[in-house]
Amino acid sequence: MNKLELISALKTEANISKAEAARVVKIFFDNMADAMARGERVEVRGLCSFFVKNYKSYTGRNPKTGEQVTIRPKKLPFFKSGKELKERVDY
């Protein structure tokens, strides 16, 4: 399912216009992304949680040249499925 399909499903289920459904989806994802950018954890009980992992700087290697390269510290978003979602998928 992509964003457009989500908007369409919301439109049908909630009996609202496509523009209103698109606005709801945009507000939801924007707030979720903003919270993660602030380093907060986003949790939808029973479904999933999103969080940010911090990685320290380390020395890597360029695969083409074999040259050592310093990799800067970074933050990456992660997804963890909840118990109910795992059970629903693995019926």
Summed up:
The chain is of the alpha+beta class and 91 residues long. The chain is built from three helices and five strands; from the N terminus they run ααβββββα.
Total strand count, please? 5
* Tally of helical segments: 3
The helicity comes to 40-55%
Structural class: alpha+beta
Q: Distance between termini?
A: 19 Å
Q: Return the CATH architecture of the largest domain.
A: Irregular
| Proportion of beta-strand residues | 25-35%
| Structural Rg | 19 Å
State the name of the first-level CATH class of the largest domain.
Few Secondary Structures
Could you report the average pLDDT, rounded to the nearest whole number?
94
Oligomer: single chain
Which H/E pattern describes the elements? HHEEEEEH
Low-confidence parts:
none
- Biggest sheet architecture: 3 strands, antiparallel
**General form:** elongated
CATH topology of the largest domain: HU Protein, Chain A
